Amino acid sequence: MKSDDVIIAIEHISKSFGDKKVLNDFTLNIKRGEFVTFLGPSGCGKTTMLRIIAGLSTADDGRVLMEGQDISTVPPHKRPLNTVFQRYALFPHLDVYDNIAFGLKLKKVPDEEIEKRVRRVLKLVAMSDYDDRDVDTLSGGQQQRIAIARAIVNQPKVLLLDEPLAALDLKMRKDMQIELKEMHKKLGITFIYVTHDQEEALTLSDTIVVMNEGKIQQIGTPTDIYNEPVNCFVADFIGESNILKGRMIRDRRVAFIKHEFDCVDEGFGEDVRVDVVVRPEDIYFTTDPAKCQFKAKVNTCTFKGVHYEMWVEVWNARSTWVRRISPNRRRTSPA
What we know:
Elements (H helix, E strand, L loop, with lengths): L5 E12 L2 E12 L3 E5 L6 H9 L6 E6 L2 E2 L10 E4 L11 H11 L4 H14 L15 H13 L5 E5 L7 H18 L2 E6 L2 H7 L2 E6 L2 E6 L1 H6 L4 H6 L4 E9 L2 E4 L2 E4 L9 E7 L17 E8 L3 E8 L5 E6 L10
Parallel strand pairs: 3-8, 3-9, 6-7, 7-8
Antiparallel strand pairs: 1-2, 1-4, 4-5, 9-10, 11-12, 11-14, 12-13, 15-16, 16-17
């Protein structure tokens, strides 16, 4: 990666709270204009890393560089970035316009320039007709749009988002995911996003950084992370997974549950014990014995709207979750 392409370089960051190490030698380069997501379970250190980038927390070791300059000791308000929090932190005594304009007024930006910028970001977040509304009268999704508008009106080079959609209901969250992705395309600036929601990370990101216990487990595109997890933690955390004990016979050939299967993996060697990850959507059901590769007993079947979720038992394997498409789109290929 060219140095000119890197807007933020995180170098060997470590951070402890008491005896608990929440970040352990965290190193990452973030490209200009990229949508990067820190993804992991609660307590993995993702929000702490975001706060260190923002200047709201200090690292015990390591440094953060922005465009090649060390900003580790630069106060938050002097860093060319803005943060959107899970709790929107809007000012209840100010209307929508003044909430967005607040930071510009502190910087003593001319009134004409403030008017121009506020109108532009209101249009960007589809809130042009709400400039004189009290923020308390807005829905959660509308308040989130205003919080984002207040952040981007300052024209930051990097926008930090700390689980900004967590407080929204499911439908509104999915709608806002689409809007965030569109905003990122229009703005062209770097987004660094924190979430524990795997689907959200897969939907939004150019690059996902999977974290656990303060360490990076894997860095990659959503497709890479989902299809080629590097270890059991990533495989289990990203989406639904059946993780089974198996044996790599040779390149592109693996054995598990007393059967041999073709696979896409190479380089493990021959006759090596491995963990085999089988995604639910890659399992097919048929009642034709001639097409079956193995038999299974369905213990439970739960309707999930667009698919069924099944708990099945197969010979020589632990019980496992599998999925099938709704009856209107039933699959009949062999397992």
